[in-house]
Every structure is written in structure tokens, then in C-alpha cells.
Amino acid sequence: MSDVIPANDADDDTAFAEGAITLWGNLLTMIGLQLIENGTAREEVLEMLTMLHETNEETVRSPRARASASRHLMSVYRALAEA
Q1: Number of domains the chain contains
Q2: At 60, phi and psi to the nearest 5?
Q3: pLDDT tens, 59-76?
């Protein structure tokens, strides 16, 4: 069996990428909550997320991946702002 994904299997590639971004967002939420619980100021954690968003905007080549990451980061930002 070959580990090569057929070129016409773009939906699987998209699902994989979106799943990875979702996992990344969940991990950021957990890390952010842990930082806040351990005494890091909420505003400092939110500033870190803003810096991460700005870095993604400059470095992620795919507009679709950039938009998805941005949406997930905004969800993380809101969750941590309300926590």
C-alpha cells in the first residue's frame, strides 16, 4: 500500500488542514487558560494572541488557511476574554 494521497482527494486534504487548525485553536485555549490560572495577566495573554494573529497574517500563504486560523484565533480570544 502506498502512503501517497491521490491528487484528486482535495476534500481529504482540506478536512485534514481544518482539523489541524481546530486542534491548534483548542490547544491555544488550554494554554491561555493555564497561563491565566497561574497568574499571567489576561491582557498579556490576549496580547500574545494578537501577536500570533499578526504573524499568521504575514506568514501563512494560503488565504483559506489564513481565514480559518483567524476565525479560530478570534474564538480563542473571545473565550479567554470571557474566562
Answers
A1: 1
A2: -80, 120
A3: 989 898 899 889 999 999
